[in-house]
């Protein structure tokens, strides 16, 4: 018998949500030259049973979902996490006033999965 | 918050939060690369190698442009038509311990961006040397290793030199005595004209060092791949 769950709607399934990070909001605007901010996104939502292909589930998530169905108190549902990220470049001043261009990997969430 | 912030900055490869005092304009080469990368994802769906600088075809994820902190050296005794002697010094101490230099390119730029009207037959001779020890005032000039010797006909745009080996040497031995740049002029018949060319050259000289490095983060991810 599966455990009782609240109804799952499409809107609360695991997927990327829009998040714009502005460097002025974190007080970094005086040393970061560009960009002034970027669309970073984040993952949020549920990974319910049954896990569909759209939810980018790992084999581990499938088995965790099974165990969760049997023991909802002891085992949580799989987490909604980034599965594909892309880099961005940041142009900034270092402490000696040199201009630096650095490539940072894994800065933008493109896809989420369970 | 400041502790949390410094931990986050450290994760991003920065030892402290920078606070620029006299910010310089962004070098055009960095601005061009930044703009190209910004537009790349929408045009090209291929995954971008974050650990390679395509523009220079070298491994690396950090590009810095160092401004020259050297000073002009008095010419001393007249030596032919020596126009200028200048110490070039680039403070590479900002590089983190775990960064590997994959490319260093010296740019000598002449702001006089048009052909000199009277430079007919005259040739400038450029010499770039690496001193092996500190020079003391009033003492004979110490031995120098000649790195580059090049002639150029006109004061035009800029000259580029590959100094990757030199920059690696500075890092490896933790000893950076800078470089010595000499520009002389030869050719032509009019001594006054040659001197005229000479006196103006130092007023529009600008030097910078572009350095590409591969950070620890990239070295780990490359090994994993």
Question: Could you explain how this protein is built, in words?
Answer:
The complex is a heterodimer of chains A (114) and B (225). By secondary structure, chain A is mainly beta. Chain A has one helix and seven strands, in the order βββββαββ. Chain A has one helix at 59-70, and strands at residues 15-17, 20-22, 32-34, 37-39, 42-44, 81-93, 99-113. Chain A has a three-stranded antiparallel β-sheet, with no helix packed on it. Chain A has a two-stranded antiparallel sheet with strand order 1-5. Chain A is elongated, with a radius of gyration of 19 Å. Chain B is an alpha+beta fold and 225 residues long. Chain B has helices at 2-11, 28-43, 164-173, 191-201, 216-224, and strands at 52-53, 58-59, 62-67, 82-88, 100-110, 123-131, 144-152, 158-162, 179-186, 205-214. In chain B, strands 3-10-5-8 form a four-stranded antiparallel β-sheet. Chain B has a four-stranded antiparallel β-sheet with strand order 4-9-6-7, with helices on one face. Chain B is elongated and about 65 Å long. The two termini of chain B are 36 Å apart. Chains A and B meet through strand 6 and strand 7 of A and helix 2, strand 3 and helix 5 of B. Strand 7 (99-113) of chain A pairs antiparallel with strand 3 (62-67) of chain B.
Rg calc of chain A: 19 Å
- Percentage beta strand of chain A: 35-45%
Which parts of chain B are unreliable, with pLDDT below 50 for 5 consecutive residues or more? none
Main sheet overview of chain B: 4 strands, antiparallel
Sum up the overall morphology of chain B in one term.
elongated
Please identify the oligomeric state. heterodimer
Secondary-structure element sequence of chain B?
Answer: HHEEEEEEEEHEHEH
Whole-number average pLDDT of chain A? Answer: 89
Mean model confidence by pLDDT of chain B: 81
Give the end-to-end Cα distance of chain A, rounded to a whole number of Å.
23 Å
Helical residues, percent of chain B: 10-25%
List low-confidence stretches of chain A: none
- Which class of secondary structure composition applies to the elements of chain B? alpha+beta
The total of helices of chain B stands at: 5
The total count of helices of chain A amounts to 1
How many E-type strands of chain A? 7
Q: How many individual β-strands of chain B?
A: 10
